[in-house]
């Protein structure tokens, strides 16, 4: 059975190596040298010897001198010409050099009558690429068709090794290695005779030079000298082959839905620019899952297509689930092509028979690195895109369709398209920097997406009822995460800013901006939607001019231990109120956390659908210390004030963006952060938001990291106050820890755990161990996790095990269950 074809990326293939073709070295060096000495033709031979003896016949005339780059040098203690027996020998510390190839041996002889070359004693051959062949004896015919090598060992430049007690060559094509051993592991430095981490032994290894194939008979795979797998027969392309059709390494997996599964992929190299891999999975419960992947490389890029299909034998394994059907399958495709050095276009596409297909059979890139679906995304994206990047500009246009993995396809939007462009001018405008950006989006959704944020709403399904707070225009039980209908928005924004320093060292930065939005909204009148948004067709034009000034006054104090810079910062922003606040869909500005990272942002919303309005002042003080012996510390503390007009963060929209954020008050909560790195080993950071009146902690995160030679650890503590307007009814508190320990030279143990302090339970942990070196990768991981949602839905437990074994030059075997 053939089990190891070569399957490389079509974009680039590394040159192969050939540790078994020892005759190539003999062809290039040993035989050529001997024939030149004996027959007097070929490149020039320079011989130097301490003792040169002659027989009764005079020596032949010297051959004509060839070009310097073809000259051959022979060095030996003694060179003997035996004209009676037509034999020439180089004896004692023989060294032969020709075109970057060198040969060392105790003795080299060529018999002109039998036309055979014989070398013996500590033979070492090194070619120009660094491949080294060791042997005790070599006996070959001068046409290179027949012969043998005794006690062969080959070390290649890419650190693969091969050895055999004897190697016989016949018919100019076949080489048979007796008791052959192959490994890609380097020998132990302390004990070179110690067995390598892994090696493949064969009673006979046959190399077919014409087919470029290696055939192993009675083979066994050993780890640390212990046989673990036996194979009566298998074959693989020799290392000179870049791509060759054949079987790849098998894989094993298991799952409740399909039982046990085994995969034996077959790789077909159709042409230099295309290939296909057939990867059927034979399962114990559902039959055969057919898989195939086609790839092609073209002038400007590459694309691939993956197809899956199965005629399920036991539909009952998925009873009551989307997988309860006879036939299931999917098609994936992706590609990317370069138009020039600045522009690329491409696509991603996914079509599935049902949204649980990938997770039920643990397929595709949608599984996590451990091979499970513990962190399975909620959807798969199909998109067509065009992207361009300049020195200070960027363009991206794409249309997107998400395939839901949760079954709510009618609640997933279709985007056609979203376009972004930004540019910063390379020349000053009124002495300052001028930039502009645009964004346009057009999307649609069939059904409304409600998110219950209280236990009452979750149990009584109040989201679609007409009950609402007429003043707030929002039901108190639910949020509208996604509206039904179509939405089109075109946004354009221009910004200008200039910084200058006065004689006192104060830094003044005036800035100005103008934002314009053209909006067309068509909201379907589905049950409950009118509580959040005006239904029907609505058009609007929104304009937001902005002017402001930022002030910094750094004070520097220098001490023998380092320097400290204290910098008061004040920012004043003047602009009108946000128009149509909360009256249009909010699709791209739903996530919002107020902290020091966005304290001095002119617009703190995360997307274009909302725009900050009203007069605001952001103030704070920043202190930075640089220590002379290394290390740094940075502290930032500040607050934001609503000076006049409407506070955009206090206005309810369909998902209550800004409420319970700390900015929904005239005087915001205090925000602070501390970052400290005493050296390269330790880093510490603290982020906090405190109530403006009571100083109660509303949000607190503390994180510490340490990295040493043999181990590393990180600990993060989080404490978050209840945010009932967003669906978090109680305080959340927990600790997340991760760590790794290098228990030996190549052994690493890793782990992580998440401790829910409110529930007083560990709701996620990962334990793993791995061995990594230049020839072997071994990993074993176990992960247990509970997935939580808001609104009191019970958590879902997920578990997975993953074992992976990677042998350099052979491939990787993965076992998941």
What labels describe this entry?
12-stranded mixed sheet, 27-stranded mixed barrel, 46 strands, mainly beta, 817 residues, 4% helix, lipopolysaccharide transport protein A fold
E-strand count: 46
CATH architecture of the domain at 70-245: Sandwich
What is the top-level CATH class of the domain at 70-245?
Mainly Beta
> Which sheet architecture does the biggest sheet show?
27 strands, mixed, barrel
Low-confidence stretches: 1-68, 366-376, 788-793
CATH topology of the domain at 70-245: lipopolysaccharide transport protein A fold
| Proportion of residues in extended strands | over 45%
Structural class: mainly beta
Describe this structure in words.
Component of the lipopolysaccharide transport and assembly complex. Residues 328-747 form the LptD C-terminal domain. It is found in: Cell outer membrane. Keywords: Cell outer membrane, Membrane, Signal, Transmembrane, Transmembrane helix. Belongs to the LptD family. The protein has 817 residues and is mainly beta. Among the domains are: 70-245, Sandwich (lipopolysaccharide transport protein A fold), CATH 2.60.450; 381-447 and 482-546; 553-707, no CATH class. 4% of the residues lie in helices and 55% in strands. It has three helices and 46 strands. It has a 27-stranded mixed beta barrel. It has a twelve-stranded mixed sheet with strand order 1-2-3-4-5-6-7-8-9-10-11-12. Strand 6 (132-141) and strand 7 form a beta hairpin. It is elongated and about 115 Å long. The model is unreliable at 1-68, 366-376 and 788-793 (pLDDT under 50).
């Amino acid at each position: 059975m053939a089990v190891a074809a070569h399957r490389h990326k079509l974009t680039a293939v590394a040159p192969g190596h050939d540790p078994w073709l020892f005759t190539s070295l003999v062809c290039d060096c040993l035989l050529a040298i001997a024939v030149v000495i004996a027959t007097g033709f070929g490149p020039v031979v320079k011989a130097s010897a301490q003792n040169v003896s002659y027989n009764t016949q005079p020596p032949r005339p010297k051959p004509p001198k060839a070009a310097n780059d073809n000259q051959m040098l022979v060095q030996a203690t003694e060179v003997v010409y035996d004209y009676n027996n037509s034999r020439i020998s180089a004896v004692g510390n023989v060294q032969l050099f020709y075109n970057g190839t060198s040969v060392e041996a105790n003795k080299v002889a060529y018999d002109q009558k039998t036309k055979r070359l014989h070398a013996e004693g500590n033979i070492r051959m090194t070619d120009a690429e660094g491949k080294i062949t060791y042997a005790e004896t070599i006996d070959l015919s001068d046409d290179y068709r027949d012969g043998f090598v005794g006690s062969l060992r080959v070390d290649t430049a890419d650190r693969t090794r091969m050895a055999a007690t004897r190697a016989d060559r016949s018919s100019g094509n076949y080489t048979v290695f007796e008791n052959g051993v192959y490994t890609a592991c380097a020998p132990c430095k302390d004990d070179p005779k110690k067995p390598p981490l892994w090696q493949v032994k064969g009673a006979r290894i046959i190399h077919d030079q014409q087919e470029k194939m290696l055939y192993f008979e009675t083979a066994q795979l050993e780890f640390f000298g212990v046989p673990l797998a036996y194979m009566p027969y298998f074959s693989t392309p020799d290392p000179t082959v870049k791509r060759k059709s054949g079987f790849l390494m098998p894989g094993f997996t298991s799952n409740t839905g399909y039982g046990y599964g085994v995969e034996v992929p077959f790789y077909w190299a159709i042409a230099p620019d295309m290939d296909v891999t057939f990867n059927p999975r034979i399962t114990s419960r559902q039959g055969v899952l057919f898989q195939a992947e086609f790839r092609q490389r073209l002038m400007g890029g590459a694309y691939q297509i993956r197809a899956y299909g199965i005629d399920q034998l036991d539909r009952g394994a998925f009873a009551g689930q989307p997988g309860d059907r006879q036939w299931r399958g999917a098609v994936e495709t992706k590609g990317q092509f370069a138009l020039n050095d600045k522009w690329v276009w491409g696509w991603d596409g996914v079509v599935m028979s049902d949204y649980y297909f990938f997770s039920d059979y643990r397929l595709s890139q949608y599984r996590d690195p451990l091979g499970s679906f513990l962190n399975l995304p909620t959807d798969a994206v199909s998109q067509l895109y065009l992207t361009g990047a300049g020195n200070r500009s960027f363009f991206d246009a794409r249309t997107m369709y998400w395939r839901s993995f949760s079954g709510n396809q009618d609640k997933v939007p279709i985007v056609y398209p979203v376009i972004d462009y930004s540019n910063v001018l390379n020349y000053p405008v009124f002495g300052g920097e001028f930039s502009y950006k645009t964004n346009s989006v057009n999307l649609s959704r069939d059904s409304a997406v409600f998110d219950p944020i209280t236990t009452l709403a979750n149990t009584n399904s109040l989201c679609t009822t007409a009950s609402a707070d007429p003043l707030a225009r929002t039901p108190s039980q639910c949020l509208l995460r996604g509206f039904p209908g179509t939405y089109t928005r075109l946004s354009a924004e221009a910004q200008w800013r200039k910084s200058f320093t006065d004689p006192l060292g104060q830094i003044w930065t005036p800035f100005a901006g103008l934002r314009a939005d053209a909006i067309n909204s068509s909201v379907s009148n589905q049950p409950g939607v009118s509580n959040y948004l005006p239904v029907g067709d609505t058009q609007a034009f929104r304009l937001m001019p902005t002017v402001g000034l930022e002030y910094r006054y750094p004070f520097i104090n220098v001490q023998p231990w380092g320097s400290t810079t204290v910098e008061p910062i004040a920012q004043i922003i003047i602009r009108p109120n946000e128009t149509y606040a909360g009256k249009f869909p909010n699709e791209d500005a739903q996530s919002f956390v107020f902290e020091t990272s966005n304290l001095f942002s002119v617009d703190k919303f995360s997307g274009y659908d909302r725009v900050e309005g009203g007069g605001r002042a952001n103030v704070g003080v920043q202190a930075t210390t640089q220590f002379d012996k290394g290390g740094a510390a940075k502290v930032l503390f500040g607050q934001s004030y609503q000076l006049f007009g409407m506070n955009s963060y206090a206005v309810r929209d369909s998902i209550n963006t800004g409420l319970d954020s700390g900015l929904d008050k005239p005087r915001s909560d205090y925000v602070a952060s501390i970052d400290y790195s005493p050296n390269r080993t330790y880093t510490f950071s603290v982020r906090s938001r405190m109530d403006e009146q009571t100083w109660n902690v509303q949000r607190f995160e503390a994180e510490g990291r340490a990295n040493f030679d043999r181990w590393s650890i990180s600990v993060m503590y989080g404490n978050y106050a209840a945010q009932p307007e967003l669906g978090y009814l109680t305080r959340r508190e927990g600790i997340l820890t991760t760590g790794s320990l290098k228990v030996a030279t190549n052994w690493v143990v890793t782990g992580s755990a998440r401790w829910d302090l409110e529930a007083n339970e560990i709701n996620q942990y990962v334990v793993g161990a791995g061995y990594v070196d230049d020839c072997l990768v071994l990993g074993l991981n176990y992960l247990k996790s509970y997935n939580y949602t808001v609104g009191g839905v019970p958590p879902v437990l997920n578990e997975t095990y993953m074992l992976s074994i990677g042998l350099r030059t052979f491939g990787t075997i993965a076992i998941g269950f």
